[in-house]
Amino acid sequence: MSRPIELDELHWLLAITQSIDVGVVVLDSDYQVQVWNTFMENRSGVQPKDAMGQAFFNLFPEIDREWFRKKVSSVVTLGTPAFTIWEQRPYLVRFKNYQPITGQEAFMYQNTTILPLRSTNSEVTHICVVIYDVTDVATNRRQLQASNLQLQKLSSTDRLTGLYNRGYWEEALKLEYVRHGRYGHATSLIMFDIDHFKRVNDTYGHQVGDQVIQRVAQVLRGLVRDADIAGRYGGEEFAVLLPDTDKAGGGILAERLRLAVEAEVVEHESGPIRFTISLGVADLGYPSNEYQQLIEWADQALYASKRAGRNRVTVYERP
């Protein structure tokens, strides 16, 4: 019957551990290095003779000692491996990334396995740390996630203004309507459009008209809160959803917006172009059956502003 292999007799296995493209480190109960393969030497710049007998934490001060000790304790107590993937913890030890394809990453992303090593009396006296370079996988996943986020942004954003498109802010309004019905939180909506916009297009052309729309959007972005949902309703018409805000608060923001737009100028070769907006404000202070009623109320207030001479704010009041 063959005799169990002792740790000091594992030298003949080093040919395997030296040739595989993963990091292999064996630690004793005091976290001192007993095995240090070529992968570790090449990535860390520390030769085996300098690593042997050294405390793992001294070689890699960046290791979270408390977390690592808990992991090792679990492995020793249960006698089963423990695993960590890069999505939970990007790396165990910080190595530079030398891969040419994924060279834009500042460090090597790693998956880690911690294995129990038993002695002849079946006690776990050492642990083996295996480090896998998964930078390619992590980079591809991160690029895919970034692409998906970009697609989501494009699908929810109006290209001309950078504001949310109608589909997005209307979905946000649906959610706010449900929240209002459940908790009674105030919610208001501002609808506004650019006065005599057709005249701008007819006089100066659609490119100048686009500049006017973009300038209004820029002013709007500068005045809304992070929680507000500012969007383009269509053409020269805009909408701003104001969570936790009643129509009085909405009216204050609407007046600030009116004054700010009135002060704007788009320069043109034929002279400066000035423009104004008309605004309507409504909230969910009246009983309603569906979220579209808030749009209708704000829209009615908007057209009341236009009928009253434009460049003004009207707050909806039920007749």
Describe what this molecule looks like in 3D:
This protein is of the alpha+beta class. It has two domains: 7-141, PAS domain (Beta-Lactamase, 2-Layer Sandwich), CATH 3.30.450; 157-315, Reverse transcriptase/Diguanylate cyclase domain (Alpha-Beta Plaits, 2-Layer Sandwich). Helix content is 42%, strand content 19%. It is built from eleven helices and ten strands. The chain has a five-stranded antiparallel beta sheet with strand order 2-1-5-4-3. A hairpin with a 2-residue loop joins strand 7 (229-234) and strand 8 (237-243). Helix 8 crosses helix 9 (206-223) and helix 9 (206-223) crosses helix 10. The longest helix is centred in the middle third of the chain and has 22 residues, at 135-156. The protein is elongated, with a radius of gyration of 32 Å. 30% of the residues are buried. The model has no long low-confidence stretch (mean pLDDT 88).
Keywords:
319 residues; alpha+beta; Alpha-Beta Plaits; five-stranded antiparallel sheet; five-stranded mixed sheet; 19% strand; diguanylate cyclase
- The second-level CATH architecture of the largest domain is 2-Layer Sandwich
Net shape: elongated
Radius of gyration in whole Å, from Cα? 32 Å
Low-confidence segments: none
Multimerization state: single chain
Structural class: alpha+beta
The CATH superfamily label of the largest domain reads Reverse transcriptase/Diguanylate cyclase domain
What is the overall pLDDT average? 88
Instruction: Give the N-to-C terminal Cα separation.
Output: 99 Å
User: How many domains?
Assistant: 2
Share of β-strand residues: 15-25%
GO cellular component, one term: plasma membrane
Main location: membrane
Catalytic activity: 2 GTP = 3',3'-c-di-GMP + 2 diphosphate
GO molecular function, one term: diguanylate cyclase activity
